[in-house]
Amino acid sequence: MAAAVHLRALPWLALRPPPAKAAPSWLPLPAKPGGARRRGSRLALLVCSAASPPAPAAPSSSGGDNATASAAASWAKWIPRPAAGRAGAGPEQVLRLISGAAATPVCQFVDKPRTFLHSVDPRVKLVWLLALVVLPARSNIYMRFGLVVFLALLSVWVLPNHVWKDQLGRVALLSGFIFIMLGFGTDGAPSLVQTRTPPPSVLGIPSIPCSTSGYSYTIMKLGPLQFTRKGLSVASTSASLSFAIFQSASLCLTTTTPEQLASALWWFMIPLKHIGVPVPEIILTLLLSLRFINLVFDEVRNSALAIVARRINWKKLTAMETIDIFFNYIRRIFKNIFDHAEQISKAMIARGFRGDPSNHKIYFLTESSFSFADLFSLLCLFGLMGLASYSDRLI
């Protein structure tokens, strides 16, 4: 048996009646003995008090609606939308992003297409790496940005399309973030210490006139922050140095095998062996590290793809369960990496290695030869260093 509760508008609220197409104003409720009438009246009072009639639509022409719809459609093309049936920034999207980032051959040797940089001697490449670390810190701002543009163009020329597009984008994003943070943070906040020198009007001396040359220490203001010349100098140095270090190392590792790099470093460090420097241990550690980088990226990618392939319904999981899955993901990565390290150690022991690199022959399987490409690279390096030295006088 059910009781029909009739909902009526309260007279003192002056609510308008609902339109003809609205839902019916009665609601069937299960009847209970002893309190059906009282509860029904309470429900009618609450519903009538909370409900409000729909606002009348404003008159609009069809031309205005079409213009608004076309403008919204044009803006919607530029707004990135998540895939159908997925959350905007869910755990599955994070794992897909990790697997996609690890799929790019970062710090891996790319044999094809073979370019001019592949034929350069690794010893010359190490000298270039050292110069690209020193020059951004010792040159002016035009030289710093020139080195950034030079490395970007060289990466586009040497690396494959799918490699340089991914690497340049991430390195440029990191360098841009460093530039913005240091530019506004170095000298951006106003000083809290006030000068104790009285103004010129109190001392009775004329004030110094403003400069007519257009010089301004403050370049830009953004609310309470300000972008000054000091911030520009620090930000350009740090951002250019970060870009040069990451991108030059990526170019060197992409166009040089680990054996060639170990052989070049051995050639530079062999005189230090006479003063007690453990050169064989350093070279063997470098060789194993360069070989191990690929395994780390493969494990990160494979573990992320394994979770994505299981099609977990993340909406039904609590926050702690999601965090637990990510902790298990990180634990699995480290476990697999340690397993690979143990297998490498067992393979080295099986081949006769007993922990002393000086008594164990290291085969680099490469021969270094000085060619015309190496001579041209050294001439370009000397020209760049000379330009950096006299850039202040030329500008």
Number of separate helices:
13
Q: Can you summarize the main beta sheet?
A: 2 strands, antiparallel
Contiguous runs where pLDDT drops below 50 for at least 5 residues: 1-15, 21-61, 78-88
The percent range for helix content is 55-70%
Q: Strands of the largest sheet, in order across it?
A: 1-2
Radius of gyration: 35 Å
Counting copies of identical and different chains, the oligomeric state is: single chain
**Strand count:** 4
Principal-axis shape: extended
Compact summary:
The protein is mainly α. It has 13 helices and four strands. Helix 4 runs parallel beside helix 12 (372-389) and helix 10 packs across helix 11.
Please tell me about this protein's structure.
The protein is mainly alpha-helical and 395 residues long. It is built from 13 helices and 4 strands. The protein has a two-stranded antiparallel sheet with strand order 1-2. A hairpin with a 2-residue loop joins β3 and β4. α4 (122-138) runs antiparallel to α5 (141-158). The protein starts with a strand and ends with a helix. It is a multi-pass membrane protein. This is Protein ABCI12, chloroplastic. Residues 1-22 form the signal peptide. It is found in: Membrane. It holds the Pfam family CbiQ.
